[in-house]
Amino acid sequence: MTEPTTTLDIWNPGWPDPFRPTVNADTDDEYADLVEALREVQEAVTRSRPTPEVAAEVATALRTAARRLRTFEVDEDTQIAGKRWEIPGKGHALAPALHIDTVTDTTVTGRVTVGRFHSGRYAMNGGVTPLIFDEILARLANSAGRPWGRTAYLNVNYRAPAPLHTELTVTAELLGQEGRKRFLRGALHHGDVLVADAEGLWVELKPEQTLNISKDAEGSDR
Ligand SMILES: CCCCC/C=C\C/C=C\C/C=C\C/C=C\CCCC(=O)SCCNC(=O)CCNC(=O)[C@H](O)C(C)(C)COP(=O)(O)OP(=O)(O)OC[C@H]1O[C@@H](n2cnc3c(N)ncnc32)[C@H](O)[C@@H]1OP(=O)(O)O
């Protein structure tokens, strides 16, 4: 097996601030472009109804790409996907590309636009809304020097269908802290229309939980 040509020290046990760049963009811009291409494939596959011949041809091409990438496989602490905090979607093709606009110690605002890949039929799929809230609320919960915490609950209310191909605004607020508990609220708007809101609890990890954070699910990606 070919070793990866680049080793990225982006998994910091002290936890980086999730609104600050953690990776040298010089070495990783091509990876960001790869993920962007994967998003284009996801959208194109979703939107298409190819002939059997074309479906088979594209499946072969995609499997060839997967085989090529597998020769560069690294462990989860070393992977780039999901850790490119500074780029929308964090370098992870499933997550909707969230653009962060403003950040304070207790608030965040951002924008997100989803396409048909994330559609539940002419509107955003109900499973995607929590992905968006989890991303923005978790990042806020774990920023501004706060020790790392995990989501204990995330309650989402769906107030109106969220349109596709339309910019939505996302806001997040840290409501307060009680000991290890951090209470947060999020809202998703289309213009003046409240599309969804959420309340979540993040619980600060105990030292032994922090030590095991990247290892306690060992083997779960297999
Ligand atoms: C699909 C797209 C993905 C895109 C992104 C992809 C990749 C990202 C990749 C990399 C990201 C990079 C870095 C991120 C790294 C790590 C972040 C990981 C964070 C997560 O990915 S997170 C995932 C979902 N999350 C969990 O996997 C949590 C499972 N769970 C637990 O780990 C425990 O459950 C825990 C720790 C939450 C609490 O456990 P514990 O033992 O420490 O807490 P304890 O019992 O002491 O409770 C203390 C006080 O919290 C209250 N409390 C607790 N739970 C409550 C509840 N549910 N409701 C109401 N109150 C609750 C108690 O009542 C008590 O309150 P009081 O003190 O007042 O009595």
TrEMBL record:
Chain ranges of the Thioesterase domain: 124-189
Enzyme class, UniProt record, top EC level: hydrolase
Cross-referenced PANTHER family: ACYL-COENZYME A THIOESTERASE THEM4
Entries under SUPFAM superfamilies matching the protein: Thioesterase/thiol ester dehydrase-isomerase
Gene3D superfamilies (alphabetical): Hotdog Thioesterase
Matches recorded under CDD domains: PaaI_thioesterase
Reactions listed under catalytic activity: octanoyl-CoA + H2O = octanoate + CoA + H(+); tetradecanoyl-CoA + H2O = tetradecanoate + CoA + H(+); (5Z,8Z,11Z,14Z)-eicosatetraenoyl-CoA + H2O = (5Z,8Z,11Z,14Z)-eicosatetraenoate + CoA + H(+); dodecanoyl-CoA + H2O = dodecanoate + CoA + H(+)
Location relative to the cell: Cell projection, Ruffle membrane; Cytoplasm; Membrane
Topology class, membrane: Peripheral membrane protein
InterPro entries named in the record: HotDog_dom_sf, THEM4/THEM5_acyl-CoA_thioest, Thioestr_dom
EC number from the UniProt entry: 3.1.2.2
Predominant cellular place of this UniProt entry's protein: membrane
Membership in a protein family: Belongs to the THEM4/THEM5 thioesterase family.
Keyword annotations of the record: Apoptosis, Cell membrane, Cell projection, Cytoplasm, Fatty acid metabolism, Hydrolase, Lipid metabolism, Membrane, Transit peptide
Descriptive protein name: Acyl-coenzyme A thioesterase THEM4
